[in-house]
């Protein structure tokens, strides 16, 4: 029995190694495995895993950037005020801290919502965004130098 299952075990070990390191690698296929290695529409399962992994990496990178932006504003504002506390506009510092704190809270809530609804594949609706308005809001958040 072990001899008969040796090729299957070899494939399993190879798939585990690919999943652990580099999804661009492929398991060598024999003709009899070719049909089983592809989904109903002919796309290779490993190819779909690779695309999913790439999407996940891009999402994490984007989420990291979105979280870093308000954090950078918070740190720049408080560090600037701390360098010269006697001349700092503490009302403005407080406003920036509250605004950026709420922004972080919203981003974290959105990430939590995505995590909860990911398994249910929640339908995402696209919304048109006016880039001029977005840039004006972002410019107003930038610390004045």
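^ structure tokens above, recovered residues below v
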């Amino acid at each position: 029995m072990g001899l008969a299952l040796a090729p299957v075990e070899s494939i399993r070990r190879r798939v585990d190694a690919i999943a652990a390191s580099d999804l661009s690698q492929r398991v060598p296929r024999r003709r009899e495995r070719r049909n089983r290695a592809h989904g109903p529409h002919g796309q290779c399962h490993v190819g779909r895993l690779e695309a999913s992994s790439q999407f996940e990496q891009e999402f994490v990178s984007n989420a990291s950037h979105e979280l870093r932006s308000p954090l950078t504003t918070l740190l720049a504002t408080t560090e600037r005020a701390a360098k010269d506390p006697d001349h700092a506009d503490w009302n403005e510092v407080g406003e920036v801290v509250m605004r950026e704190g709420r922004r972080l809270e919203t981003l974290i809530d959105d990430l939590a919502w995505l995590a909860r609804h990911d398994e249910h594949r929640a339908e995402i609706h696209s919304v048109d965004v006016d880039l001029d308005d977005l840039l004006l809001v972002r410019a107003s958040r930038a610390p004045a130098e």
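Helices lie at 2-20, 31-34, 45-83, 90-118, 131-141.
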